[in-house]
Amino acid sequence: MIVVDQDDPLPPFEQIRTQLADRIRAGQLTEGQRLPSIRQLASDLRLAPGTVARAYGELEAAGLVESSRVGGTRVRAGQAADAALRDAAREFVAVARRHGMSLPDVLGAIRAEWSGTEPGPAAVPRSGPRPASVPGVEGGG
Predict the structure, then answer these.
(1) What are the φ and ψ backbone dihedral angles of 110, each rounded to 5 degrees?
(2) Bridge partners of 131?
(3) Element of type H or E holding 79
């Protein structure tokens, strides 16, 4: 399920791109798996087709998917993180949840570790997202 939160400051195309990229890297969308057509996903999410096209274009530019008129948009080979990294992420999330950390807090901690700095204040929570079920895209949400 792809979720677009109209209250999120991130533009809808970026929310779509991020969610799909995360699922590809997590192995939830696998090599060769076909994504919904631009028109179908736009209709399901009640967005303009150009919004979805931009998200798909950015995924293609990042090398995560490939598109063709005949085959549609499919996940490229070798894009999922390896099993050890996914296991480490799963364990990290479990520990963070046990400590009551929010997603913004966890992402801040990761960014701080990545850059070698102290984490900053967490983002202010926003109103909840509006989910849309997307045929052909399973998991997450």
Answers:
(1) -65, -45
(2) 3
(3) none
The two three-digit tokens of residue 109, written as one number: 């901690």
C-beta of residue 4 within 8 angstroms of C-beta of residue 130: yes
Interatomic CA distance for residues 27 and 23, integer angstroms:
6
What pTM value is reported for the model? 0.69
For residue range 59-110, what is the model confidence (pLDDT) as tens digits? 999 999 999 999 999 999 988 888 888 899 889 999 999 999 998 899 898 8
Contact, 105 vs 118, CB < 8 A? no
User: Given this model, what pLDDT does residue 118 score?
Assistant: 62
Task: Classify domain 2-123 at the CATH class level.
Answer: mainly alpha
C-alpha distance from residue 19 to each of 12, 66, 121 (Å): 11, 17, 23
Domain boundaries, the chain: 2-123
